Amino acid sequence: TLNASDGYYLLNVSLSDGIGTSGNATVNFTIDTALPTISELKSNDTDNITRNNAILNFTVTASDTNLFNVSLNGTLMAPVGGNVFRLTSNASDLGCVNEGSCLLTARALDLAGNANTFSYNLVIDNIAPALSNFKAKNDTDNITRSNNVLNFTLTSSDANGFSLAVLNGTAMDSGTGEFYLTTTPAGLNCTNGQCLLSATVNDKADNQNTILYVLTVDDLNPNIALNSPQNMANISGTLNITVSVNDLIANISSVTAIQ
Question: What is the pTM of this model?
Answer without folding.
Answer: 0.75
